[in-house]
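We modelled the chain as a single entity of 233 amino acids. Its sequence is:
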Amino acid sequence: MLPEKEGCYGQWPDMDYEHVTESRVLAAEYTKWITALSADVPGPEGQAAMLVEGRFYPGDQLEVTVEQGEYYHLQIRTLEGFYDQPVSVRLQRDLLPEHYEIRLQREGESAVAETRTMGRYVVFDLECPGDFRVVKASPGIPAGYFVMGGGIILLVLLFVVCRLIKCGKSRRMAGTAGQQATEEAQASASEGEMAEESQTPASEGEMAEEAQTLSASQALENPRKSDTSREAE
């Protein structure tokens, strides 16, 4: 097992290992990976119309088939068969429509690829070499605007919900305060009625005492009148 070396692949020297008759020290040979293969498709200004990036051996070959100007089939032929590792595909931007989508075709299903721009190339990723399609798309609002609009709507909804919650709390607090004020007013009225009731018997008692005093004074005046009348006789 050869130790790994970044950006390289290792190989033991090419020799007949079945007829080794003496001990030998072998030095592994490291070679840099080939990181890009170009397609045999003409591009503007002498640049490759398509590049496929990955880690390839010297004998690997990229084969591209284009049908109707929009259906692409990629495969990378190796010494052992076909390459089945993830790759990145670069397409010349000048060869694409003004508005486009790149749809990946895999196992009968289609999915829109996420693309990025690097210089004059549009780049997207494939799980392994396969089929994709370049489709003309109608100009429209970028997806980012929809995301921003959705975020703004969500913020507005959150603001409205918070305001409703605050209003509900304020109303509940106001109702509680009003109920407390009503209860206090009722308690004060009850205390006033009790005070009046306690004062009423005292007033009647005072009236009774005044009546007794008046009767006593009249009783004192009547004997004097009777004595005077007797003297007059």
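As a brief sanity check on the tokenised model: Residues 8-140 form one domain. Residues 4 and 10 are 7 Å apart (CA to CA).
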